[in-house]
Amino acid sequence: MNALEDSNRFTLIRHTDADAWIETIAAEMAQILNHYIDAAGRARMLLSGGTTPAPVYQALAELDVQWDRVEVSLVDERWLSPQDRDSNAWLVRQSLLNRAEGAHFDPLVRVGKPLPECVYTANLQAQHTEAPSLAVFGMGNDGHTASLFPGSKDLARALESTLPYAALDATGCPGSNQWPLRITLTPHGMRQCRQRLLLLRGKQKLEVLKQALESNNAALYPILNAIDLDGRPTLRIHWCD
């Protein structure tokens, strides 16, 4: 069986049109948020950065969601000020928060605080708030997700962590570009998320995903840590060329 057809591990939705990809994902995100708002009065979602999800966030901001009942934070962050244009916080603010009036945002990096203190604060907050209703992941061509980079000296520690967030030094990992210091959601943190989406664009990403699934090596392909979470709803993967 083709590894991409294993419906026991995930649900893969293929889109033939980029606009439909954007609109379908945004609608699904809004539906999830509204479900938890109706059930519990509030919803919390964790978002990834990058150019791939930005148009989805823009479309989501236009949909009917009680944004004053939504808390937003991040799957991961570069060790940059939230005001830095290269930070995930800046992208989420520009594409979603500036349009979704009333939504509350919790950045992972606190200006003036050292990295260990920011990680401590992120974990403290995660442990004292509602479990995330939704987490949106991406994947790099190296098979990383969040800031879990293959080859990082800190990867094993992050994968084994019993806390939601960890610091990670990805020095030497090509996918981290010029920002090796990161705060990242761990597999333990992923397990707390009630619903999970993975957004992919392009044939190369689909081939990387196939290689990851066939390898069954979560250290070589950290994306597997977002897929194989026992006892959680299956990951929904939205792909478009």
Under CATH, the topology can be stated as Rossmann fold
Low-pLDDT runs: none
Number of helices: 8
Structural class: alpha/beta
SSE string, helices as H and strands as E: EHEHEEHEHEHEEHEHHE
End-to-end C-alpha gap: 22 Å
Second rung of CATH, namely the architecture: 3-Layer(aba) Sandwich
| Biggest sheet overview | 7 strands, parallel
Tell me the strand percentage band: 15-25%
In the sheet with the most strands, the strands line up as 1-10-9-6-2-3-5
Helix content: 25-40%
Beta strands, count: 10
Gross morphology: globular
Mean pLDDT across all amino acids: 96
Q: Into how many domains do the coordinates divide?
A: 1
CATH class: Alpha Beta
Short structural summary:
Helix content is 34%, strand content 20%. By secondary structure, the chain is an alpha/beta fold.
Search tags:
241 residues; alpha/beta; Rossmann fold; seven-stranded parallel β-sheet; three-stranded antiparallel β-sheet; 8 helices; 10 strands
Explain this structure to me?
This protein is α/β, with parallel strands linked by helices and 241 residues long. The protein has helices spanning 18-40, 54-61, 88-97, 115-127, 155-160, 187-192, 203-215, 224-227; strands spanning 10-15, 43-47, 70-74, 76-78, 104-105, 134-137, 165-169, 181-185, 196-201, 235-240. It has a 7-stranded parallel β-sheet, sandwiched between helices. Helix 2 runs parallel beside helix 3.
